[in-house]
Amino acid sequence: MINVAGKHVLWLAFMWVPSVAWIGVRAQTLEQLQQQAIREAVDRVSPAVVQLQIIGGADRVENVDLASGPATGLILSGDGYVVTSRYRFDPAPASVVAILADGRQFASAIVAHDYSRKLVLLKLEGATDLPAIEIAPDDSIRVGNWAIAVGRTYRADRPNVSVGVVSATDRIFGRALQTDAAVSPANYGGPMVDIQGRVMGVLSPMSPSSESTIAGVDWYDSGIGFAVPLAGWQSAFERLRNGKDLERGYLGVGLADGVPRETTPTVKSVLPAGPVAQAGLEPGDLIVAINENAIATQNDLKFAVTPHYAGDTIQVAYERGEERHTVDVTLTTVAKLQEAAEAATKQQTEASSND
């Protein structure tokens, strides 16, 4: 009779050990499955990815040479609305022709610009029954997920593809996803899709330190690329479709000196006739919440406000001494803030000269 220890010895003696050859076959199979999944994801979105033949426009912006040749766009609706990056649209080109994967061609007109997210909306003239896309739900986008960047610049009849992962979310102060997939003029304006072929965002050069149209271009193919997420962007799309340009919204407030990630958002100054001035905020007030979300640092405040557009109304909670107040504030553009500041300066100058 075999004792317990013997049973263990027999089990170990007959336990199957994978061979090196089997491990190699298994690894090859996994690689093939990954490649197949990537190809299927690209095939799913590819009909909605268009090549944009751009005539005219600028060859150089802010001492930076722009890429020549076609750009990429993404069909958003069956009736011909296409989104792309503003990279080749500042200033506007003389004409744009969209070439679909099936060979159809459409003249395109600029409808409106999203200056905050560096996108432009086009309308393909006379287009109907165009391919549809599926937008990836916001809660499905996680760091480490596959990220497939798709363009259609080199040839109109086939896409160009680069593959990576989602490196970070809520980048560029809440306006972008980050990926290590190669992002460059070869795919600006194209989609970044997940492994199911659902669109997570639109590829565009961006930078946390500048709002310039070409900011971030120098990072291309560096392992740092950005895409504007489409989940939650539907309301912006509707405004753009109605011909309304969208710009980043500003509070019109100066904050106390300090390291933004560590310093509380205490009001140091308010711009005359700006949004917070009209709402009644004063120097010394401490902003503690935006839309009922707690704010502890100046970085928190920037993340809460920057994704909103000029014209959006947000709820601002602030403390003055031991009292807490809540007001509605309608954001404005930086141009209007500058106009208000110049008007106030002129008024002060005139008042001083009359004294």
Task: Describe the structure in brief.
This protein has helices at residues 4-14, 20-45, 171-174, 234-241, 275-279, 298-305, 334-354; strands at 49-55, 60-61, 64-65, 71-75, 81-85, 95-99, 105-114, 119-124, 146-155, 158-170, 176-179, 191-193, 199-203, 225-229, 253-255, 267-270, 286-290, 293-294, 313-320, 323-330. With 355 residues, it is α+β, with helices and mostly antiparallel strands. The longest helix is centred in the N-terminal third of the chain and has 26 residues, at 20-45.
List keywords for this structure.
single chain; about 350 residues; alpha+beta; Thrombin, subunit H; Pdz3 Domain; 2 domains; 6-stranded antiparallel beta barrel; 7 helices; 20 strands; about 30% strand; globular
CATH class of the largest domain: Mainly Beta
Strand tally is: 20
Output the number of helix runs: 7
* Poorly predicted runs of 5 or more residues: 1-15
Give me the Rg, rounded. 26 Å
**Terminal Cα span:** 116 Å
Number of domains: 2
Provide an overview of this structure.
This protein has 355 residues and is α+β, with helices and mostly antiparallel strands. The chain has 2 domains: 44-241, Beta Barrel (Thrombin, subunit H), CATH 2.40.10; 253-338, Roll (Pdz3 Domain). The chain is built from 7 helices and 20 strands. It has helices at residues 4-14, 20-45, 171-174, 234-241, 275-279, 298-305, 334-354, and strands at 49-55, 60-61, 64-65, 71-75, 81-85, 95-99, 105-114, 119-124, 146-155, 158-170, 176-179, 191-193, 199-203, 225-229, 253-255, 267-270, 286-290, 293-294, 313-320, 323-330. Strands 1-4-5-8-7-6 form a 6-stranded antiparallel barrel. The longest helix is centred in the first third of the chain and has 26 residues, at 20-45.
